[in-house]
Specification:
Strand content: 15-25%
Number of helices: 25
Oligomer: single chain
Shape: globular
Largest sheet: 8 strands, mixed
CATH superfamily of the largest domain: Nucleotide cyclase, GGDEF domain
Distance between the termini: 69 Å
Structural class: alpha+beta
Number of strands: 15
Length: 597
């Protein structure tokens, strides 16, 4: 009788983010220079191991040319992947091309099975196969990972397609992210994407005779990183203040904040954004005082126009912002021989606490997440508990209720829309010269189907702030729903120029206007440029149906049902805010032809 028995192996199943990384061209490099290649790769792998452990990753395997990590959260895996690619890029900077080490990385989220000391399962296989689809220096991710991180402001995405993976039964939607924030978000820019439907003046430094100006995120030189929001708020307010000058074309906030925490070369920023002027600065804040340093740089002359340093009490921040705004606009006016009337001042909060709470709320609301939206609402409400008539807080609070309605984050959508309307009206009463309130009012009026009031609100908002691209794009969408799609297209194209790293909604608004005009081919080209196609799939399905592309229409309709299992065409027909019933019928018929009901 054999006394030896197989030791009992424990089994456990866990939900984990899975990361695979390996060296591209490993065999070729080893054949050319075995010793040197081994040393360079070993050094990089060692750095990756240490970083992974520091990011709370679990190292499963480290082989000669690659790594296998598990993480409890997707964000941990993404942080490691992006950091690793940055390190590899930096290490390669001074090496000859044939000695550079390039990694490819694949990420997936799913159940893993632990059997003894082994980690196995379908999810592990999928992550490994996704890695094989990545090119040198890139990161490929599954839809499961994408859904977890798609609203992270500093990450850009490119939809690769529905890809068949070796030994995986069904094809999967695969996306690519970039380790370098700028490169990632450039994939969403008009120049990177190309296309005839975006404005072609990206490289020009003027729009309609107006010089383009960009405001870089102010650096926070405080030792407390928690005060980053204050530096961000000063930047955002300066962008908003400059935007109100009709003689300037100001690059939007969302395009500028991708440069946050990055070392930049000013003339390079000018080239990337097609700007003539760049504003850069820093802020150091204590409990009661602050030091603000500001520089205005002329990209054509390749030299600063002026720079200044201010030491002030923290409560003086609002007066200082006005002062800096006036100096910048005056300097640009002198340089360009243009002048414009200084806009009326928007409301200044009485208490720095109110301002701080609104800035903290802005950090939450731009993540477009249900929980973060609730947290932002609490901060705006807290600000209003200090100052009940603070219009900026009221407008922001209106936005939280609009988002509840737009994304179905509430069981009472009609009540949410009514509340957003009530607050938007309250905001414009509190401060009649702040564009934010009118922008919120325009959005709510559209979906309440009060079309004339909607357009009047947007026109007023753009008069007060002619460079706000979000308001611009929302007005373009409103014009399309008001039967004026031909007028909508140039406004939407202008928004794409002023916001080079525009969000997807600009594209589906443009695609909607093109669809209304029965330019289905143009609409498909536009919608295909979206980083995430999810919000554009209804339009794509209808376009393909009218184009006679039944398979494509059926596929897009299927993806709509995957995302919205309870999709109801009758409900969708009711909420469409078109002024012309034939426009709604045109859309609904296209959806029905695609197989949606």
């Amino acid at each position: 009788m054999n006394d030896k028995t197989e030791p009992h192996k424990t089994h456990s199943r866990r939900l984990r983010a899975i990361m695979f990384a390996d060296v591209v061209g490993y065999s070729r490099m080893m054949a050319a220079d075995e010793e040197g290649t081994s040393l360079r790769i070993a050094a990089l792998i060692d750095k990756c191991e240490k970083l992974g452990i520091a990011n709370h990753g679990e190292l499963v395997q480290a082989r000669g040319d690659g790594l296998f990590f598990l993480f409890e959260s997707v964000s941990g895996a993404v942080d490691l992947a992006t950091e690793v690619q940055k390190i590899a890029k930096e290490d390669n900077r001074l090496l000859p091309e044939d000695q550079q080490v390039h990694l490819r990385i694949g990420l997936h989220m799913g159940d893993v099975l632990e059997i003894g000391n082994q980690i196995v399962g379908d999810s592990v296989n999928i992550a490994s196969r996704i890695e094989s689809k990545a090119s040198a220096g890139s990161i490929c991710i599954s839809a499961a990972v994408y859904e977890q991180i798609k609203h992270k402001a500093k990450i850009g995405f490119e939809y690769i397609g529905r890809i068949e993976l070796k030994n995986i039964p069904d094809p999967l939607d695969i996306y690519k992210i970039s380790a370098d924030t700028q490169v990632a978000l450039m994939s969403a820019s008009p120049r990177a994407r190309g296309g005839e439907n975006t404005a072609s003046s990206q490289e020009e430094c003027v729009i309609g005779g107006k010089p383009k100006i960009a405001v870089l995120p102010f650096a926070n030189h405080d030792s407390n990183n928690d005060d980053d929001f204050f530096a961000d708020g000063v930047t955002e307010d300066l962008i908003t203040s400059l935007s109100r000058f009709h003689a300037l074309a100001v690059i939007s906030r969302s395009s500028m904040f991708i440069y946050k925490n990055r070392e930049v070369v000013l003339h390079q920023v000018c080239r990337e954004l097609g700007a003539q002027y760049v504003v850069a600065g820093s802020i150091r804040k204590s409990t009661t005082r602050m030091r603000l340093t500001v520089e205005l740089y002329d990209c054509r002359a390749d030299q600063p126009v002026w720079r200044e340093r201010y030491n002030r009490e923290i409560e003086d921040i609002f007066d200082l912002q006005d002062e800096v705004t006036d100096l910048i606009s005056a300097a640009v006016a002198i340089q360009t021989q243009s002048a414009s009337r200084t806009p009326e001042r928007i409301q200044i909060p009485a208490l720095i606490e109110s301002y701080t709470l609104v800035l903290q709320g802005q950090q939450k609301i731009f993540r477009y997440d249900r929980e973060q939206n609730c947290m932002a609402r609490e901060m705006y409400e807290a600000a209003l508990s200090h100052e009940s008539d603070y219009s900026r807080a009221i407008a922001a609070l209106s936005r939280t209720h609009s988002l509840d309605w737009r994304y179905s984050w509430t069981d009472e959508p009609d009540r949410a829309l009514d509340k957003a309307h009530e607050l938007a009206l309250e905001s414009v009463v509190a401060d009649p010269v702040d564009a934010r309130g009118y922008g919120e009012l325009g959005f709510v009026k559209l979906y309440r189907k009060d079309h004339d009031a909607c357009l009047a609100a947007f026109e007023k908002a753009l008069h007060l702030n002619p460079n706000d691209t979000d308001i611009m794009s929302n007005m373009g969408d409103a014009l399309a729903h008001c039967g004026r799609s031909e007028e909508a297209i140039p406004i939407l194209n202008k928004a794409l120029v002023l916001n080079p790293f525009y969000p997807d909604q600009y594209l589906w608004y443009l695609g909607g206007a093109q669809f209304n005009l029965k330019r289905y081919g143009d609409a498909v080209k536009t919608l295909k440029k979206m980083n995430s196609p999810s919000e554009g799939r209804r339009l794509l399905a209808a376009c393909y149906a009218y184009m006679g592309k039944k398979d494509e229409a059926k596929y897009e309709a299927g993806k709509v049902l995957e995302a919205y299992p309870n999709f109801n065409l009758d409900y969708w027909e009711r909420v469409q805010p078109d002024v012309n019933p034939e426009d709604t019928e045109h859309f609904v018929t296209g959806l029905r032809l695609a197989g949606l009901n």
